[in-house]
Design goal:
This protein is about 40% helix and about 15% strand. The protein has 15 helices and 12 strands. It is globular, with a radius of gyration of 23 Å. The N terminus and C terminus are likely disordered.
Length: about 425
């Protein structure tokens, strides 16, 4: 079992990482030496995409490589070839794989083995890129110099509640996503904020990894229903959404990745928390991830996670390899607060715990409680009964400002009036 190496202490752990964010592509020469070496897969890619992937990567006609419907398939193909070349030369496998953002995670899934083949992955990335290319009116920007808390404070103090944090690239490189006009407004504000090194608008057509991707998420979810995946993967994959190894539900992670932030910093910190030395190897064009990982190592501490379930799986893997029969005693059930409740409910509302707190009449439980509960990974409800519409509106604005950095959920309780059923159609509103 590959996972067992992490706990042996005296062994080095290897992690392959794949770039995939908008801007990772290199114009002119991307994958130049690889297309001839993998001619069969290049021909297969051309048939799936309906155009020459080699021409797009090497010649970039009409600057189309910057368009997400071309960027994502190009990066996926070139990253996959880099991985295949590496395994062909060394015949070695990594302990973990991880991919960054739009396309990189699909390369990680391909490299992990047992989930899907090159052809399936390319079809998924092609469809994903096409759907995302239809997004207009949105934008993204990178803020350099501030940490997550500082950025959240700037957003809240300046009423920039239409912006979401899309990428946690490093402790001091964070990407915002939202309407173009709000990105433009934020530019002037952040440029005047102390300690901001740079505010860089990104060349994207949409507000990726944000609440504004709901339509794309829905359509891509329908498309995924046409495919069958076969978990668990042979090599553990670190999820962008959870910053932890993938579980059994591959589709849920791929769907959630579309409108959830990329937790790259936490992913690397999680890997740093293992025992022994770690070698990160970036497979793909450029060295963007290598630079980010260096920043994370210099500015962050390892994230130590006591995961008994993983340890149990590792132990079982070692027993299997050693042909040791399992014990006749029944397995111990390890219950934690985060393991209770419906997994689908927690995924749907971006919750860590399947716990709700109820609102009280006239907002007695307060907006502060709703915000604190949301930040803790649960869902709080604000009681709107007996309040004027303007008071309810102000409460919603306050809650949204407090929760806008992580997309946490909250609810509003509405009092049902039996004598006036037309005044209310639903019992609760979720956000």
């Amino acid at each position: 079992m590959e996972l067992a190496k992490q706990n042996e202490g005296d062994e080095r752990m290897t992690v392959y990482v794949f770039p995939g964010g908008q801007g990772s592509q290199q114009k002119g020469g991307m994958g130049k030496e690889l297309f001839a070496e993998f001619s069969r897969l290049t021909k297969l890619a051309d048939d799936i995409l309906g155009y020459s992937i080699r021409t797009v990567c090497l010649e970039n006609p009409d600057e189309i490589l910057g368009q997400t419907q071309y960027t994502q398939p190009a990066l996926y193909t070139v990253n996959a070839f880099h991985y295949l070349k590496k395994t062909r030369e060394t015949d070695e496998k990594p302990n973990y794989v991880a991919g960054h953002s739009l396309g990189g995670e699909y390369n990680a899934l391909f490299a992990a083995g047992g989930v899907f083949d090159f052809e399936t992955g390319l079809k998924l990335v092609k469809k994903r890129g096409e759907l995302m290319s239809q997004c207009y009116g949105g934008g993204m920007a990178a803020v350099l110099g501030l940490n997550e808390q500082q950025i959240a404070e700037v957003l809240a103090l300046n009423g920039l509640d239409q912006l979401d944090i899309a990428n946690f690239n490093s402790p001091t490189q964070i990407v915002l996503s939202g309407p173009k006009e709000e990105i433009k407004q934020a530019e002037g504000i952040f440029e005047k904020t102390p300690n901001v090194q740079m505010f860089i608008p990104l060349k994207t057509s949409g507000a990726f990894h944000s609440r504004y991707m709901q339509q794309v998420k829905s359509e891509f979810s329908s498309y995924l229903n046409e495919f069958h995946f076969f978990p668990p993967p042979a090599i553990p994959i670190i999820s962008n959404v959870e910053a932890r190894p993938y579980g059994e539900n591959i589709k849920a992670n791929l769907i959630a990745q579309i409108d959830h932030p990329v937790k790259w910093t936490e992913s690397i910190r999680y890997l740093m928390g293992g025992k022994g030395e770690i070698d990160f190897l970036e497979l793909g064009p450029g060295h963007v991830l290598t630079s980010l990982i260096g920043q994370i190592k210099n500015k962050s501490k390892p994230l130590i996670v006591e995961d008994r379930l993983t340890k149990d799986k590792e132990a079982m893997g070692r027993r299997t390899e050693q042909n040791v029969p399992p014990s006749d005693s029944p397995p111990r059930l390890c219950l934690t607060a985060s393991s209770l409740g419906s997994d689908s409910f927690k995924r749907d509302y971006n919750l860590k715990y399947a716990y709700l707190t109820g609102g009280m009449y006239r907002g007695i439980s307060s907006t502060d409680l709703v915000v604190k509960v949301g930040k803790a990974g649960m869902m709080g409800f604000f009681g709107s009964g007996g309040l004027k519409p303007v008071e309810i509106e102000q409460a919603i604005i306050t809650i949204q400002k407090g929760l806008n950095q992580g997309g946490e959920a909250y609810g509003i309780n509405l009092v049902h009036q039996f004598n006036h059923p037309q005044r209310k159609k639903k019992s609760s509103i979720y956000y």
